[in-house]
Amino acid sequence: EIVLTQSPATLSLSPGERATLSCRASQSVGTSFAWYQQKPGQAPRLLISDASNRATGIPARFSGSGSGTEFTLTISSLEPEDFAVYYCQQRYNWPRTFGPGTKLDIK
Amino acid sequence: EELLVESGGGLVKPGGSLRLSCAASGFPFGDAWLSWYRQAPGKGLEWVARIKRPPDVGATDYGAPVKGRFSISRDDSKKTVYLQMNSLKTEDTAVYYCSTDHSVYSASSGNWLEPWGQGTLVTVSS
């Protein structure tokens, strides 16, 4: 099973600032990698697939990068609605596994 | 636009059974691989089970914590995927979500989407 580690666990920033979230995989997953956003009481929402492709309807301020074992989600300028929990997921093999999440909260 | 809607959750005693349903609409269900995920209260996301599309419908896979107790199936005529949960444990308490494992085309929106349902809560408690 591929283990994903996210950092930091919590990130406190202000609207307008840039957010950088990281995820490391225990073995190479190529670019078979996704990022999700989840707000309280809601289902996860796909942001990024294939490491860097924005899902339909996702604003351009969200971008993903990386390959192999190191991945980054960048939010270029935080909007109030971006404060949420973010999960990474590997899609390289089964079982699909997730990181423990990064909570992005308002400073 | 709700493409996936789960139902069937509720309160059940340890050792009991429950069957969840996930009804799909708005995309070609027969082309989709489907998975169940879960999220325990205050915890992260966990993949539970997956079923492939026809003709590989028998190709199912399960997460280690549920293998041998849970069973995933689909009825393409009803556009519904099921999760039969037996021998339930307190640690199975979670919100259960269904999702496609890849992008599907939504004719109503004209977009490729990877939908998740809104989730259904399963509570295992005596």
Indicate the mean pLDDT of chain B. Answer: 95
- Briefly note the structural class of the backbone of chain A: mainly beta
- What percentage of residues of chain B falls in helices of 4 or more residues? under 10%
Q: What strand order characterises the main sheet of chain B?
A: 2-12-9-4-5-6
Shape of chain B: globular
Number of helices of chain B: 0
What is the CA-atom radius of gyration of chain A, in angstroms?
13 Å
The radius of gyration over CA of chain B amounts to 14 Å
Give the biggest sheet of chain B: 6 strands, mixed
**Helix proportion of chain A:** under 10%
Strand content of chain A: over 45%
Order of helices and strands of chain A: EEEEEEEEEEE
Q: Quote the average pLDDT of chain A.
A: 97
Based on the structure, what is the oligomeric state of the protein chains?
heterodimer
* Pair with the biggest interface: A-B, 21 and 20 residues
Shape of chain A: globular
Report the total helices of chain A: 0
Q: How many strand segments of chain A? A: 11
Q: Could you tell me the number of beta strands of chain B?
A: 12
The major pleated sheet of chain A works out as: 7 strands, mixed
Which percent band covers the strand fraction of chain B? over 45%
Structure described in brief:
The complex is a heterodimer of chains A (107) and B (126). By secondary structure, chain A is mainly β. Chain A has strands at residues 4-7, 10-13, 19-25, 33-38, 45-49, 53-54, 62-67, 70-75, 85-90, 97-98, 102-106.
List the helices and strands and how they pair.
The complex is a heterodimer of chains A (107) and B (126).
Chain A: E1 4-7, E2 10-13, E3 19-25, E4 33-38, E5 45-49, E6 53-54, E7 62-67, E8 70-75, E9 85-90, E10 97-98, E11 102-106
Parallel strand pairs in A: 2-11
Antiparallel strand pairs in A: 1-3, 3-8, 4-5, 4-9, 5-6, 7-8, 9-10, 9-11
Chain B: E1 4-7, E2 10-12, E3 18-24, E4 34-39, E5 45-51, E6 60-62, E7 70-75, E8 80-85, E9 94-100, E10 104-106, E11 111-113, E12 120-124
Parallel strand pairs in B: 2-12
Antiparallel strand pairs in B: 1-3, 3-8, 4-5, 4-9, 5-6, 7-8, 9-12, 10-11
